[in-house]
Amino acid sequence: MVSRRQFMQAAPLGALSLAGLGLPMAALAAARTIEDIPPDRIVSFLGDNVPSRPAQLPARLLAAMKGREDIGDVYLAEGATGALERQFARMLGKEDAAFMPSGTMANQIAIRLHCAGRSRVLLQEESHVYRDESDAVAVMSSINPVPVAGGASEGLYDGMLAAFARSGEDPFPVDVGAVSIESPVRRLDGATVKQETIARIAALAHGKGARMHLDGARLLLMCGLPGFDLRSYCGPFDSVYVSLYKYLGAPFGAILAGDKAFVDKARQARHVFGGALYHGWTAAILAAKTLDGFEERFARVHSAAEDLLARLAKKPGVTVERVVDGSNIVFLRLDENVATGLRERLTEHDIAIRKVRDGRLQLVFNETILRKPVASIAAAF
């Protein structure tokens, strides 16, 4: 089977004969789609991850295994899984780390352990734990989630302060066991919570006897942002979760880090909740391969993104709209003459974008921006 585009390229005489039947050439030369772009050439502004196809997985595993020994783990112990846990513990500045099958399990175990019988967890009203985990803290652990306003702004501290005050009101005070903060916040287009705000909230929480958890599913996407230091950012938190599949190339998995006593309990809780997979090495070895040098590469991603946005901002009909304290997501406001046919034009240059909606285009930056000179990407617009 060949596509109409391939047919046109390989058999122009046949195409011309079909045109002679009255079919327009534009209809015969079918528009190129994202699926026509080789995965190793695509520059994708669609999401956090480097796109890949299922058929590539065996080759990716073989490449990740090359030169490595003792890869296999048993019930997530040792092998590539254990090595990845140690690698993450060092990166995040924590004593230990545990592999988790999913980010939801990582978040739920952390909050359950931190609350330790206390009945409330404070979290952002836009957070994944509150909005996307099916009331799991209440259903699985009988913990009441208290949504707090403020999003990723400095106002989040004021929201936390008010929530602590309400929980401590007489005559029936309620103990807050944990504060969970998501950063970057998916539902706020990747907005990040400033380290200064986190430090103030941590001082408040720890002063009240509550512990701090970071839902850092997309945490490493902040690498390369001005003033960001991974260990320093994680410092105020008693536990940190990072996703392995959103941008590290693993098919599944997460890491939950903290002090050794906490992680020991997290591993036990993982088993109780059915998360002690017999093998995790396939996910661990792929994540580890991407993780090597990731901080440096993503700093280059941010640099290339800034260069691209500066070039696009000079083009007629293009306005750059930034997310306040954003990470890797930016919006373009496009005039109609720019927006019309843009997706098709960029596809011809191996560049994939989302649909332009009401004159607005979301760009999500990932490592594929490093595959082409920034000037050529900008010119394709």
Structure description:
- The structure is a single chain.
- The protein is an alpha/beta fold.
- It is built from 17 helices and twelve strands.
- A seven-stranded mixed β-sheet has the order 2-8-7-6-5-3-4, sandwiched between helices. Strands 9-10-12 form a three-stranded antiparallel β-sheet.
- A hairpin with a 6-residue loop joins strand 9 and strand 10.
- Helix 5 crosses helix 13 and helix 6 crosses helix 12.
- The radius of gyration is 24 Å and the shape is globular.
Total of DSSP H or I helical runs spanning 4+ residues? 17
Order of helices and strands: HHHEHHEHEHHEHEHEHEEHHHEEHHEEH
Which structural class do you get from the secondary structure elements?
A: alpha/beta
* Largest sheet: number of strands, sense, barrel closure: 7 strands, mixed
How would you state the average pLDDT, rounded?
A: 93
Q: Helicity level, as a percent range?
A: 40-55%
Radius of gyration, CA atoms, in whole angstroms: 24 Å
Unreliable stretches (pLDDT < 50, length at least 5) are: 4-28
Shape descriptor reads: globular
Rounded to the nearest angstrom, the distance between the terminal CA atoms is 32 Å
Secondary structure blueprint with pairings:
Blueprint: H1 4-10, H2 12-19, H3 25-28, E1 43-44, H4 57-65, H5 79-92, E2 96-100, H6 103-115, E3 120-124, H7 128-131, H8 136-141, E4 144-148, H9 155-167, E5 176-182, H10 195-207, E6 211-215, H11 230-234, E7 239-243, E8 254-258, H12 260-272, H13 281-291, H14 294-313, E9 318-322, E10 329-334, H15 336-339, H16 342-347, E11 351-352, E12 360-364, H17 374-380
Parallel strand pairs: 1-11, 3-4, 3-5, 5-6, 6-7
Antiparallel strand pairs: 2-8, 7-8, 9-10, 10-12
